[in-house]
Amino acid sequence: MNNKSKYLLVLITGILVLSVGCTKDFLNTRIDTNYTDATIITDRSTLFSFAAACYGSMQYGYTAIDNNIFASVSDEAQQTSASSNALVFNQGIINANNNPDGGLYKTYYDGIRACNYFLTYSVNGNQFLALNRDTISDPVGFANDKMNLVWYIAEAHICRAYYYAELIKRYGGVPIISETLQQASADSILVPRSSYDAVVTYIVNEIENNKAGLQLNWATSSYAGNAGRFSLGSALALEARVLLYAASPLHNPSNDVTRWQKAAAAANAVISTAGLNYTLYTGGYQNYFMGANSIGSTETIFAIRRPANSTIETQNYPISTPGGNSGVCPSDNLVSDYEWIGAVNPTNPYANRDPRLAASIVTNGSTWNGRVIDQSSGATDDMANRNASRTGYYLKKFLTDGLNLVNSGTASNQWVAYRYGEILLDFAEAMNEAYGPDNNPQGYKYTARQALMLVRNRASASLPSVAAITTASGFRTILKHERRIELAFEDHRYWDLLRWQDAGTVLNQPIMGVKPTLVSAGVWSYTPITVATRTFNAPTNYYYPFSHADIVNSNGTLTQNPGY
What we know:
Layout: H1 3-20, H2 37-40, H3 44-52, E1 77-79, H4 86-90, H5 103-121, H6 125-130, H7 139-171, H8 196-210, H9 232-247, H10 257-272, H11 285-288, E2 300-304, H12 311-316, E3 328-330, H13 332-335, H14 355-360, E4 361-362, E5 367-368, E6 371-372, E7 394-395, E8 415-419, H15 420-435, H16 448-459, H17 472-486, H18 493-499, H19 503-506, E9 511-520, E10 523-532, H20 548-553
Antiparallel strand pairs: 1-3, 2-8, 4-7, 5-6, 9-10
Helix pairs in contact: 5-7, 7-8, 7-9, 8-9, 9-10, 9-15, 10-15, 15-16, 15-17, 16-17
């Protein structure tokens, strides 16, 4: 078997695995494993299967670590299990031989390889399509095939950019592989690292050079069934996030203001490009994340989809709910940061707070799964119970209330990777750093403050005023707080702390919780408790280590990150 055939076998195997978990038509990747090199390039369905395979390595955020969300790696939450993979991060013991998230290095390069392979075989794609269509009797079908191929080619470039964005977020500079290599193992092993900035430039060029070939917005087109594929809007959102990270202190130590200007321009493109028409969901913050609501919302820019399941509910329902495992339990560090609305209630610390608290976190005394949560001594949810919450809180965001796990109940749990609420905060942050809170010399649709207030006012018009904050430094503090609250549990906090270079301070603070004591019927007092200590080794842990195996196998072409 030659190298090309070996590669085909590996790719076909990956496509078959992808087909197990996908039900959308555009992700239907069933193929005949008896294809030969000659028949592969002349079969229309196989060509499109290779195109769909470009999406196969994207991470489903609900299973990021410990088969759960990534929140317990940051100060947002504590994993209930005493032997979780999150502890490797929490204790600062991540190294070249022990990185629970390290498998994504190969996974993302597998995705890049799939993109490269499709792009190689799509060069003569229209000719291949013509061999499988009667172009005389079915000109409409042939025209649709050609249009779909144009989209898929552009999408493959964006998928490749996505994988590189996820890699540099973790490792800094990585090898750039822009063509198919005849090698069944990781293509990156014998290619030297490019610098972080060089990969950012590569990502931006991939998007800018191919965005014209993308569908503007699947949701508003006559091809809404393809909404799980990249569009112009999601490509621009990817570019905006990449440039925001590149402008941040970790990657911009000299605080080059032109980087912030580029990030602001990129986010403004998502906000202002005609035809995208993204808006904030108005049906309630909690409701947006429940079931299929996000899929049909104009706030959603790109979601990684899976068939209906109960993964997030099974992992995070309270242990006293049949089928629940407690899982990721929010910290009091986070809860304490939700602002008060109106008077402080000394007998109920969860009343009169930013409504995103009640929408995101199950607090003691609140109703969840059809009953009042009581974590006091001797009660149903007693914190002394085995595998009960260690912080005094449970996760609510994303979860469908009252799902019957015992009888295999499922819900539509789709991972929203990019949404308009984030883009507004990306824009506000970049604008503030480039021009200040209220200046708008470029004539963009919003100032930094206006974009921020869209998000805050969606949560509640009664939140404390920030009008008195007029300096860029003061506004920066407000922006960081708003990202912490608005984007809680959405896999932003850890990376935000890294890019701001705040992790060395924040992630060395203990995780706090509260212990309720029942005072009288329906009334509790709360005692602060230290749940766990945390260790973050700065500056080493600002980047992941490359695995020892990849370093050894590279024959000196892959250099390890400092400190490992």
